[in-house]
Each structure stands twice: as C-alpha cells, then as structure tokens.
Amino acid sequence: MKTAFLFLVLLWPGLAPAQAPAMATTREVEQLFSVLEKSNCQFYRNGSWYSAQKASAHLRRKYDYLLKHDRVTSTESFIELAASRSGMSGKPYLVKCGNAEPVESRDWFSKKLVDARASRAP
Questions:
Q1: Quick one: which of 12, 18, 57 has its CA closest to 37?
Q2: What is the arithmetic mean of pLDDT over 47-51?
Q3: How confident is the model over 91-118, as a mean pLDDT?
Q4: What residues have CB less than 8 Å from 35, skipping those under 6 apart?
Q5: Which residues on neighbouring strands pair with residue 45, listed in sequence order?
Q6: Where are the domains of the chain?
Q7: CA angle (45, 81, 57) in 5-degree steps
Q8: In what helix (H) or strand (E) does residue 4 lie, and over which residues does it extend?
C-alpha cells in the first residue's frame, strides 16, 4: 500500500510538493525586491506608472504564484517570468529612475543582479 502511494505521489504532478528554489536564488530575488523598493524609481505596467513599492508588491505576488507552480529555477527565470512583462498584455514592463529614459525592466533587473553578484565576489 505504501509503495502504491509513493508511486502516485512521484508520478502525479498535482500531488508532488513544489520544489523550493536554491537558497542563492531566494537570496538574490529578495535582494532584487529590496533594491527596487529602495530605488525611488517608477515602474510602468499596462499603461500606468507605479511606485517602486507598489511594483515590488505586484512582482512578489507573481513570484509567489511561480513558486507555487515550481517555475522559478534561477534568479534569471524570476526576471524572465515575473519581472519582464505583463502576463495579461504581454507588453514589457519599464523602469524609470529620476530623469533617465525608461528602460525595459528585464534589462534593469539583469543589471542589478550583475551588480549584486559582483559585490559578493571575493
């Protein structure tokens, strides 16, 4: 009986528990949220500009959804799947900091990730 249950759990995706991303991924994604929240940048999504704090809250909801569905395999996958474009419209998100021209959020987050990794390098 136990063998049959184990067999079902392993083969039936709806029963198998979601895999948590690696600790490094979790740490980096949290760091990206922190950088965004402290940035005072504006975030463009589906025709409207939002504060960095509102953008972070929105992206956290998307991140949580992706975690529940075992879709976050790396920090790069978080950027690609949650922080780059709208799931509704498919249009890219933009980030505007100060008087600088808006940039696609994929590029903004990717640069912040490179900076974070460089700051941890020996």
A1: 57
A2: 98
A3: 97
A4: 112, 116
A5: 48
A6: 17-120
A7: 50
A8: helix 2-11
